[in-house]
Amino acid sequence: MKTGSTAMLWRLFWVLAFLQVVDLVTTYRVLSLGGREGNFFMRKVILTPMAPLLKTLALIFFALLIIGSTARGRPSPQRLTLVAFGLVALYLVVVINNFSHLLPLR
User: Fold this and answer.
1) What angle do CA 30, 31, 35 make, to 5 degrees?
2) Which helix (H) or strand (E) holds 33?
């Protein structure tokens, strides 16, 4: 795999990791203001240590996929990059949604 592709995957990894942290922080803030968790799967664990643990495990899995992609070409680097862009886009929407619940309407 090309070095540029590897670098792109790792950049996407760190963007996704940052967005995961921002998602957790903003979700906790929304919950403290009386909001609720919108993700059905996270609803029961969001206020437990499982929430950051699950996000960490997902990031470790993604890192292992990147390593496998760069070492063996599996999963396909192009597909993994496409999936990574999709995940970044999804979490951008999640974070924007969280911030929309925190900003006062004028």
Assistant:
1) 75
2) none
C-beta separation of 81 from 90 below 8 A: no
pLDDT tens readout for residues 12-61: 999 999 999 999 999 999 999 999 999 999 999 999 999 999 999 999 99
Going by C-beta distance under 8 Å and a sequence separation of 6 or more, which residues neighbour residue 102? 26, 29, 30, 33
63-96: pLDDT as tens digits? 999 999 988 888 899 999 999 999 999 999 999 9
Contact yes or no for 99/23 (Cβ under 8 A): no
Tokens standing for residue 41: 């799967």
Q: In the predicted model, is pLDDT for residue 1 greater than 60?
A: no
